Amino acid sequence: MTSLGLPSGIRACLFDLDGVLTRTATVHAAAWKETFDAFLLARDGAGFRPFDAVKDYDEYVDGMPRADGVRSFLASRGIELPEGGKDDPPERDTVQGLGNRKNALVLQKIKELGVEAYEGSVRYVHAVRAAGLRRAVVSSSANCHDVLIAAGIDDLFEVRIDGLVAAERGLPGKPHPDTFLAAAHDLGVEPGRSAVFEDALAGMDAGRAGRFGCVVGVDRVGQADALRSHGADVVVQDLDQLLGGAP
C-alpha cells in the first residue's frame, strides 16, 4: 500500500463524491447560496445577511444530507421552519421545500454546465483498482448515480451508498459514520481496514467516529488545518499526490 500512500492493512477505499471525485462542490455551494439568499431576502428585506458560499457552506451544509443542511444553516441564523413533506414544491418555505429548491437548482446547473471529474482523483482510483482494493462511493447526494454517469466514472466503483440508499436503509448522514460503515460492510471489509476520502468537515467527523483505518482529507478550498482538526490522518490537494507514497 506504500505506493498508494496508505497504511499496509487497508483493503478498501471509500470515496466521497462532490469535491473529491467530481468538481461539483462549487455547483452545490452556488445552489445553496441562491436558495438561501432568496429566502433570507424575502424574509428580512434588503438588510439581510447573505449566505457565505465558502464559510457557511463548509461549516453548515457541506457533506450533509439536504434536509440536514437546511436545518443546520437556518439554526445558525436562529431560524426555525416547519419540516414540511418530501414532496413540498420548491417555492414552499419549509425545510423540505428549501431542500427541493436547492436540488432543482443543482440539477439545472449540472445540465447546463456538465460534470467534470478531477483527473488526479480518477488516476488514483484506477491505481487503487489495479492494486486489487475494493472501492465504494459514499455521498449524501440523491443525484450521485447520475453524476457518476455524467462524469464517466460509474464503472470504477463496486458499491454506491448515496442519499437514496441511505433513505431506503434509514441511515443517518454525515457527520454520523453510518453511510461509510454501510459501504465497508457491503464490500465485505472491516472499517479498520478501510480508508475514507473526504473534503467536507462533516465527512472528517464521520471518518473519525467510524474508527476507519485511514482518513484522507482532500483540501480544495484552503482548509487543511480544519480537516486535520476534524480527524484527517493526512491532507492532500488532489488524490494523485498519494501515488508513490504518503505526501
Topology:
Blueprint lengths: L11 E4 L9 H20 L10 H7 L4 H11 L18 H19 L5 H12 L3 E5 L5 H8 L7 E3 L1 H7 L8 H10 L6 E5 L2 H9 L4 E5 L5 H6 L4 E3 L11
Parallel strand pairs: 1-2, 1-4, 2-3, 4-5, 5-6
At a glance:
With 247 residues, the chain is an alpha/beta fold. Helix content is 44%, strand content 10%.
Kindly list the characteristics that best describe this protein.
247 residues, 44% helix, 2 domains, Rossmann fold, alpha/beta, DNA polymerase, domain 1
Provide an overview of this structure.
It is globular, with a radius of gyration of 18 Å. The chain folds into two domains: 2-23 and 116-242, HAD superfamily/HAD-like (Rossmann fold, 3-Layer(aba) Sandwich); 26-113, DNA polymerase, domain 1. The protein contains ten helices and six strands. The chain has helices at 25-44, 55-61, 66-76, 95-113, 119-130, 144-151, 163-169, 178-187, 201-209, 224-229; strands at 12-15, 134-138, 159-161, 194-198, 214-218, 234-236. A six-stranded parallel beta sheet has the order 3-2-1-4-5-6, with helices on both faces. The two termini are 14 Å apart. It has 247 residues and is α/β, with parallel strands linked by helices. The longest helix is centred in the N-terminal third of the chain and has 20 residues, at 25-44.
